[in-house]
Specification:
The protein has about 100 residues and is of the alpha+beta class. It contains three helices and three strands; from the N terminus they run αααβββ. Helix 1 packs antiparallel against helix 2. About 10% of the residues are buried.
């Protein structure tokens, strides 16, 4: 594993590569998401709002809408439900948009 010294660009590049590889290779996706999550925890770097919903918080699996994740609009909330563990995450959104 590479050594990072406050090099956020390098970290983001590696994180994006791991997530992309996990989407392409279904058999190794659990391992790639585990490594990506480990990078997040070790360097304490914040992700963008969209990237936060790529990995399930409880089971650490890659969330792909329609495959192992259900996305619904309900009463002003966007809900993501993991079909592996049943964890639900909600995001408030403006109905007028």
């Amino acid at each position: 594993m590479a050594v990072y010294r406050n090099d956020e660009k390098r970290f983001k590049r590696d994180f994006d590569y791991l997530i992309k590889a996990a989407m392409e290779n279904k058999s190794l996706s659990d391992r790639y998401t585990y490594l990506a999550k480990k990078l997040l925890i070790s360097k304490k770097i914040k992700l963008s709002k969209e990237e936060k919903f790529l990995i399930c918080r409880s089971c650490n699996k890659l969330l792909v809408p329609g495959v192992n994740c259900r996305v619904r609009l309900k009463q002003g909330f966007l809900t993501y439900k993991c079909l592996n563990c049943g964890n639900v995450r909600k995001v408030k959104y403006d109905k007028r948009i």
